[in-house]
Design brief:
Distance between the termini: 18 Å
Strand content: 25-35%
Helix content: 25-40%
Structural class: alpha/beta
Number of strands: 5
Strand order of the largest sheet: 1-3-2-4-5
């Protein structure tokens, strides 16, 4: 399951998470973002309990988009122990995301 987050709960959901987190920065008007969604949904099921998957709408949450310098979407940032460890920009194959996730767990 991919959890929808916002500027207000970003810290509690991502930074303070006990397990690694993949955060998808997206927007409803973004075609590649919509294409990436089923991939992140599938991976969230594969890694249930090991990695948390979140998505944040950049249009509705400019604070976090600005903090993490999001210039292009989709952008997936990978966090472990509250620290950004990696990123993935654009619509990438499932295997590419999986490799980055494997490095976190």
């Amino acid at each position: 399951m991919v959890t929808e987050i916002n500027d207000q709960n970003f810290d509690s959901e991502v930074i303070k998470s006990k397990i690694p987190v993949a955060v998808d920065f997206w927007a409803p008007w973004c075609g590649p973002c919509r294409s990436l969604a089923p991939i992140t949904e599938k991976l969230s099921e594969t890694y249930a309990g090991k990695v948390k998957f979140c998505k944040i709408n950049v249009d509705e949450n400019p604070e976090m988009a600005g903090k993490y310098k999001v210039m292009s979407i989709p952008l997936v940032l990978f966090f472990k122990a509250g620290v950004q460890k990696d990123s993935s920009l654009g619509l990438v194959p499932e295997a590419a995301l999986k490799a980055k996730i494997q490095a976190l767990v």
